[in-house]
Amino acid sequence: MPSGYDGRVLQTLDRHQAGVGDRVAIDSDIRYTGTIMPRYHHSDDSHIVLKLDNGYNVGVSIRNITGISILERRPSAPPSAPPPEPRSDLPDILLVSTGGTIASRVDYRTGAVTPALDAAQLGESMPELYDMANIRPLRLLSEYSENITPEHWLEMAGAIHRERSGYAGIILAHGTDTMHYTAAYLSFALAGCDTPIVLTGSQRSSDRASSDAALNLAGAVSAIAQGIPRGVYIAMHHTQSDDDTAIHHGTRARKSHASARGAFRTINGEPAYMVRGGVLERHTHGDYWDGAPYSPAISVDRRAALVKYHPGYDAALLDHMAEGRRAVILEGTGLGHVGREAYHSIRSMIRRGIFVGMTTQCIEGRVRMTVYESGRDLLDLGVTPLRMIPETALVKAMWAASRDMDMRDTMVSEMASEMV
Amino acid sequence: MPSGYDGRVLQTLDRHQAGVGDRVAIDSDIRYTGTIMPRYHHSDDSHIVLKLDNGYNVGVSIRNITGISILERRPSAPPSAPPPEPRSDLPDILLVSTGGTIASRVDYRTGAVTPALDAAQLGESMPELYDMANIRPLRLLSEYSENITPEHWLEMAGAIHRERSGYAGIILAHGTDTMHYTAAYLSFALAGCDTPIVLTGSQRSSDRASSDAALNLAGAVSAIAQGIPRGVYIAMHHTQSDDDTAIHHGTRARKSHASARGAFRTINGEPAYMVRGGVLERHTHGDYWDGAPYSPAISVDRRAALVKYHPGYDAALLDHMAEGRRAVILEGTGLGHVGREAYHSIRSMIRRGIFVGMTTQCIEGRVRMTVYESGRDLLDLGVTPLRMIPETALVKAMWAASRDMDMRDTMVSEMASEMV
User: Fold this and answer.
1) Which residues in chain A are closer than 8 Å to B178, comparing Cβ atoms?
2) Residue of A291 and B311 predicted with greater confidence
3) Maximum Cα–Cα distance for chain A, whole Å?
4) How many contacts does A have with B, using Cβ atoms within 8 A?
5) What value of ipTM does the predicted structure carry?
6) Beta strand pairing status for B273-276 and B279-282?
7) Chain B residues whose beta carbon lies within 8 Å of the beta carbon of residue A366
8) B209 pLDDT band (50/70/90 cuts)?
9) Which option is the CATH number for A7-72: 3.40.50.300, 1.10.10.60, 2.30.30.520, 3.40.50.10790?
10) pLDDT per position as a tens digit, A105-129
């Protein structure tokens, strides 16, 4: 575990054979007793950070230290217990871990974030899950979701496609930052997958009292155990309350709060399902995939871009973006507008065969380009209005660009319950 | 007024000396009686669109027309009435019109959108406003707000600065698409202006039954008449209901619905004021501008850009964006993250002296870059966390880049009640 200490501070610690997590007494102007904490990277570089017995942290300057005595060594982690024997009366669920907060653990004695839990430990840390399902863990990635790339999407889709057989459902533990982008990708790449796929994560790490990890994971398990139909979903806290898990269509949700537990919202509607007091409630009309064949199409092409338009937007950026691009998704204003200043570049992109689709930067509501002159002008230029949230439109364009399909036809046809 | 007709259809109409708005009888396979509507640009080009007396529109093919008789000519608009005499017991308000839906009128007989109303007609079409204030109209621009540019911001700020003297307040009638960008600009450029400035607009044009124009304008007038303190505000419907007008700080609101009347929301908080049943209620703490001097600083520099980050974002676009840019505002994921793939380009921008600020694409919540490794990495690269919504951060950067001020100091110091 990186301690954050270097230079003279690290030398001081090394000289006394002390390290992060050790309980020590430091003799300086006075005697400090406490646990050595990892040094926060941006903090002062001439102090040892000590968590005192009263819970407060202090920085002890190394300048005045006369001695460090080890009172107790950092305890090692307890050995993992094996998961319980599978029960024939319970459904089998595959729990794929990819990283994110749900797979992090903060050691509150030291304050350090320990290396990512894998799916086995995730299951273990919430033994109540084994009363609902037999959970087989699979560790696939260990990335915070801001680092998830389209190539990771391929890995996830590939693993689910290969491993899905025999499972009542698959849970993907994923960081929340870009969970909705991944969910949208899996929705298109694994369209109609014969096993329901539920992404879940947490906004607070699993060992914090306020953690949402257990409820979110339990909600995902519960939805599958109660036979949620095929589809790709996001299962997360509905509000700040621990009572309900919202189950969103993977193509219709956004992370709408940076830190709150009820961060995900279905745009222009209610969540497709809810787990309330452990009971799965259906809110969506009909079963989108009912009778549809499973048609995996696992490929991606990065040559799509998303542009949030604003007053003073430099149209030269669009001209540059056109180079080597297959599709540009505009996040326009209002009902789907951009200013006249951008028309020339848009016309030129469309003439070069680049697909230009319109979404709205207003969070709610729909694109309607026939109402105002600007919308009609853009339709005349060949811009295609899209009935999708911008994030889903981008991901769909990256997917469509990799298939041998007409881009415009693909973007205006509903393929994975994405139309809002 | 453009009729939308051209080619053979226009010839047919001209031959019979008929035009949009005329009530006619068209003899074809049967006889159609109704009013000629403007042809919608994207519709079929061989039909005349007729609004029948039962209210439905039909397209009559010109192929079979044997005659068109004019039953009644399109009526001309009634002459404008002069505004009432100013009353000494009422406050004086300057109503500046810039265009937008609030200044449009749909002629329901013909379906056409008539040329923009100017501020005088706006006042006239809502005579009840003259019971609350003496309203002096000033027509400044006639643009839908998707076409508003930073140069228009200068015009608006200049007009307000020049004309403000003697008024209890200034109302700016503005399209809603980019109203929040303009409001943010005026907040910085006219910081502490000695006259309150209230932007208002409408989501439905003023002559529609469901129009919000009258309530929004009345809310703005009412807030000024009741002595709202100095500041730049957005006054719009609070919800779909006609009961309340929300008065948002101009630096903290977003258009959050493409079409609903209650489209504007204060992010991370409640509106600063409300007008409920005609009474101004204060919700904000303290008076932001209390005692502050008026410091107009009307200039702008377009060399700032806003980037919404997403998985698979092409870092080469950042490299290109760096050319000639003074500031780049990132709309990151979660607490303020972008993927590792973008680090190299960000480092290189910062080394070149470009200011790189971080906001979040989650609608609510705040940037906190010390929680996760990614945030700390980005702090190390020199990215500055911002306590503003992305739109305000962009506008502030465009303004700050035009001033002789340290960009980073300016961006992290509160200057116009913008911190959320």
Assistant:
1) 310-311, 333
2) B311
3) 79
4) 190
5) 0.84
6) antiparallel
7) 258-259
8) low
9) 2.30.30.520
10) 655 444 445 544 666 676 677 778 8
